[in-house]
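Extended Data, panel c. Modelled sequence:
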Amino acid sequence: MTDKKERPLLPRKQFAYDNVQPKPATEPPLPTSEAAQNHTPNPYRNSNITHEKIAAIRAKATNPTPPKIDHCQPSDTYPESFPHFVRGRDSLREYITSLFTSRIAMYDGAMGTMIQNYAKKNKLEEEEYRGERFKDWKCNTKGNNDQLSITQPHIIKGIYKEYLEVGGSDLIGTNTFSSTTIAMGDYEMEDYVYELNYEGARLAREACDEVTAKDPTKPRFVVGAIGPTNRTGSISPSVEDPSARNVTFDELVDAYFEQVVGLMDGGADILMVETIFDTLNAKAALYAIGEYLEFSGLDIPVFVSGTLVDQSGRTLSGQTGEAFYASIRHAKPMCVGLNCALGAKHMTPFVEKLSKCVECFLHVYSNAGLPNAMGGYDESPDDMAQANKVFFENGWLNMVGGCCGSTPPHIKAIREMSESYKPRKLPDVGRPKMWLSGLEDLKVEDVHNHLGLPFLNVGERCNISGSLRFKKLMMSGDYGTAMDIAKKQVEDGAHVIDINVDDGMLDGLAAMQKFVKIAVTEPEVSKVPFMLDASKFEIVLAGLKWCQGKCIVNSISLKVGEELFKEQATLLKKHGCAVVVMAFDEEGQAATEEEKVRICKRSYDILVNEVKFPPEDIIFDPNVLTIGTGMEEHANYGVDFINATKTIKEICPYVKISGGISNLSFGFRGVMKIRES
């Protein structure tokens, strides 16, 4: 049997805006908020932030005395201009850009390792964990390291200062890795989450300010550490039921939002979503941060750190490093990288891949090697510094630190090793591209199909209106066989899988969620991005909340009116998805070439100029309509679609066009073999 002949790849039609020459980046991609765009300094006057959702969290705080939540400094505390920094006077976004482009910045090392080391030399048992405050607590709390910020603050602040003074850290993470209502459920301490985050950040703030005062030319910053929780949105806890979950997206958002309020009130400068083994959890954390930034009007730098669990180079939920980045880049993090699970040697190929695709700054804080038989880490400070050297030699990093097994001497050795190397240069800024992801990433502009044509193939066989077989399976609840249809489409060359469960006899909301929850656990299906397709917006939104990757939502339009259109688009932008926009408006469906162009251009202007939706993530569907019917009033539909497509591409830079070419089947009435194919 001979191999299939390889077809030549046909070039994509070029428009004027395609010839964008890459330009040097001066800073990481900016969030679209006014504060971020203008580099507005954070005033550090949190008492002025009175949004009802934030006020409600503060109102139930357990702090024994009213917390001090303002952390501004007099503007003349230190001299103006870099390397000095004064809270309330200077833009932290600008400062980090200057710091990360002038040298490799130092993060801290492991908090848990330092607490364990303290316990080897000092008594740190149940009694000490509880302290006076929790001496009569209802369950054991030993092991709840975050609790020590309340009961043994001198231990936590002492560890912070060791990393600052011995390690030379520029930034230190707060002792709040597990300080969410979800994780604190293990100790029945959900009510103390605000206080845990506040105290973890307050102690770090004090330590940083004390060390900065000794050398104002080297300001130190507090990074609010936001861990992954002990539950996963993408992974079923049940072997028998792949659609089961023990947490929802909305529950994660609420938990993270409360954590963010406590961290910011405690004096955090930066927020770090870290040790991400399930990207859906990270997306929920970033959504919560986005809500806080919207309610407060602040510009807070956000860092994101993923965890690749083994040499496969994938997260626990199955994504590659590139897919992980494509899934969270909509949040416009200032710095992205990897931490935990692996030592620096084992991270090398994955850090190299990220360094080639990440548009912002890049960091690594690896473990001190792999764990030994006793669960400890054997790399010495010198060993760990040598293992990190490859990152510095190749110019891959802007920030470096340590995770499990690392201590202040490890950080000191890494810092000294890094000092003779230059930081990573931000990549040049070129033409924007639609960058989707399932378990693997996909740049739409770079795709060619099996015929060598520059088309993205969307598999439509998991669409009730497109497949009679799929409809029967969904009606009977046979999700397993329905997954086989999805797998076959991927095998046959579908780049994206469309999921549509619209039918009057089916609970679309429940069916969409169940299908997506099962599909994301099937690697042969979820390796490609999904197109969530429904006539009701709440159905696509429900499906979206179970997708860790970057999806396409199909669809929205001006049919619902301009205000609701903007609301829906804004919500989709927050979730980071691409969107299909139908050529509908308040008057109805566009049939002529002129109407298709007018409605699409109006939609484009609203999305790009008002909602600030990325133009490269917009897909217009200008309605092919019923063609090939032989009816005179339909005779020009095909021509109108083609002509409108060219004009829309010319006047709406970077958009994509989707066409329902299956409408050709209207010309084959009675020929069921063709119509059902």
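The two ends are 27 Å apart (CA to CA). This feature is highlighted in the accompanying rendering.
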